[in-house]
Structure formats: C-alpha cells, structure tokens
C-alpha cells in the first residue's frame, strides 16, 4: 500500500523550515580547570616521581633556603648540637687516652684542665666553638693532639656559622617578601582606547621605596592542539604591552594602568565577549624589578582567568591633587566603571570599522536623551514647587472655596420625606 503524499510541500514543512532557519552559534560551557598561577603569585604546580633526588644535595645552600622555616630551624639546631657532641666525644677520647680521667694514673700534666667526664668534655666543646671561655677549663701545651682537635673544631665551627647564618639571612631577606607590597587589580578589563580594543590591568606599589627598572610581561597560557595533532597543555604566548613597546622600564611612582592593544598579533584577536566567557585561557602578569634599598631582584606574579576579565569596563581615577600634593586613594584601586564597548571581536572591528562608530553614536544619543530627561524632570519639579508656593501665598480664599465645593460635591444628598415630595408634585 502506497503512503499518501502530504498536501503541504516538503520545503514548507516544519523540518524544511527548521533546516533553513539561521542558527545561532552554540558555545560550550567552560570547564572549570585549575589555574597555573594563583592570585597571590604562587605557582600551582606539583613535582612528582623525581628519581634524581641527589641533585638537591649538590646545591645544599639553595635547598636550605628553599625549605620552610620549621625545617630550617630544626636543621640549624641539629647541626650545632651534633657538632658539639662530636667534638665532646673527641675531647673525652683525648682525655681518656692521656689519662686525665684517672686521677691515679695521670702524670701531673693534663691536655685539658678540669675535664673529668663526658659532661665536662661537652661543656668544654661548647666553650671552644662559641668562644665563651669561662676560664675553668683550658687547653695546655703538653698535648699535641688536643691542639689539633682545637684547630679542627674552630674551622668546622666557622664553616657551620657561615652557612647557617647566611641561610637565615637569605630567608629573612628573600625577594618575595618585597613582592607582598606590589599589588594588582582584582579584575582585568577590556574597553576601547584610542579607537582600539585594549586589555588593561592596574598595578601599584604600596611602599615609598621604589622598584628600579621595573618591567611588566604578559603571557597567555592555554591548552592548544597543533595541526599535527600534538596537544600542548601549557602553551605560553607572549603578549606585548604599550609600555614595553615605548620604553623597557616603568617609573612605578604611582599606580599605572598597563594596556595591551588587541591587534592581529594578539592571542585575543578572535575572541568576542561571549567567546571569552567560554574560553579556558589564563593571562599571567609578571612584574620584575630591583629593590631600591637592598639591590635584590624581586618578582611579583598574578593571573586572570576569563571570569576575572570584565568586558566593557574601565578603571576609575584614583590620583588627585590636594594642597599641592598628589594623593592616591587605594580604596578605589580596583574600582571600574562601565563604558560603551562593542561586544564583537577585534577582528570584526578591523573588518567593519562602522561597528565602532555606530556603537559610539548610539552611546552619545542615549547619553543626550538621558540628560534631556533629567533636565525636563528637574524643570517640571521646579515649576510644580513654584506654583504650589505661589498659590499658597496669593490665593488663600480661592483655595478655601475650592475645598468647600469639593466637600459639597462629595457629601451625599439627603432624601426628602414622602409628604414634601407630594406637596412639590
């Protein structure tokens, strides 16, 4: 049995119409992934399965500096106590070999006076290494072995002091401590500047001592796949900034806005506002410079993911002049204001410059309309207030008549009795 042919042509049916309707681009939801650099600048990277652990012992000083404070203090105390015990054993053996511990056998000359037990040998070891010298115990010239042990302990003690004190000093004066006072804005913004889409962040220094030769580097890190099918999980792309192009160093006297022009060489060139929210890129900001007071190179880092990039915003001003002095209000450091910005990508703006012109014209018209509405509302309010004030001063009698008339109108009529109505008829 043949199927009946539909009366409606296929091209006008629901499947045909649905196939010809323009479809909006569908963006996949961005997968929440771990960021490479945290907001405080620490690297979110774990090293596993390192087989050549001996490489860390070849650079003992750097290993000690990189350790946490609790481990450093434990190693510091253990090293000194171990050296005191080691040389206390040496002094006890010298005294035992020379017969100083046996008051009957000794021949009247001691290697070290008043060393009669291991406890006294331990106390003498501490006195020699830290140069306390209480005076009760001392070495004599009758024992060459004791003189040799004294020289060895002094040399070993100086080496331990130099290494451990240098390690403590380097940990105290680490460059990352200075980086704590270098701050970045909580969010990055994208807005139009000089007729171009720009990616902007704000940096600042809380200390009065400056960072000499400060430089800022931007990198975009994301997962990419090459045409050959190779997956690069951490693909780093350098991003140029206006400050780097004009001058290699920053004069970080007051907070600065670092601007990156999104041009055809930028990794953000093809991203629109919607695509940016769905992307998994991460913008890493690195601020480097030399500390003016110590001369140590410092580095501060932070990063911005797509959720922390505000499209169509601009940083507000925070530097004002008060009584001949420039004042910086750090409470407004991360404040942004919303501005008119096209939602399309920088590529589309380059291909169709009219989009930017139309957007700016619409913004100007809307701004003018809002100003007109505000002015008209202010005029109406002022006229109402003036009319009310003039009416109350010039015509109190008219107001009284008007109120009496309203009360008479609103008052219900009294119904007449039946005999009065018959009389009227």
UniProtKB/TrEMBL annotation:
SUPFAM superfamilies: E set domains, Voltage-gated potassium channels
One of the record's GO molecular function terms: ATP-activated inward rectifier potassium channel activity
Entry's Gene Ontology cellular component terms: monoatomic ion channel complex; plasma membrane
Taxonomy, superkingdom: Eukaryota
A GO biological process held by the record: potassium ion import across plasma membrane
Annotated transmembrane regions: 71-94, 144-169
Chain ranges of the Inward rectifier potassium channel C-terminal domain: 182-352
Compartment(s): Membrane
Region (Disordered): 364-425
Annotated Low complexity bias: 378-387
Reactions that this protein is recorded to catalyse: K(+)(in) = K(+)(out)
Keywords linked to the UniProt accession: Ion channel, Ion transport, Membrane, Phosphoprotein, Potassium, Potassium transport, Transmembrane, Transmembrane helix, Transport, Voltage-gated channel
Residues marked Role in the control of polyamine-mediated channel gating and in the blocking by intracellular magnesium (site): 161
InterPro entries, sorted: Ig_E-set, IRK_C, K_chnl_inward-rec_Kir, K_chnl_inward-rec_Kir6.1, K_chnl_inward-rec_Kir_cyto, Kir_TM
Topology term for the membrane: Multi-pass membrane protein
Occurrences of domain Potassium channel inwardly rectifying transmembrane (ranges): 37-174
Family under the similarity heading: Belongs to the inward rectifier-type potassium channel (TC 1.A.2.1) family.
Name of the protein: ATP-sensitive inward rectifier potassium channel 8
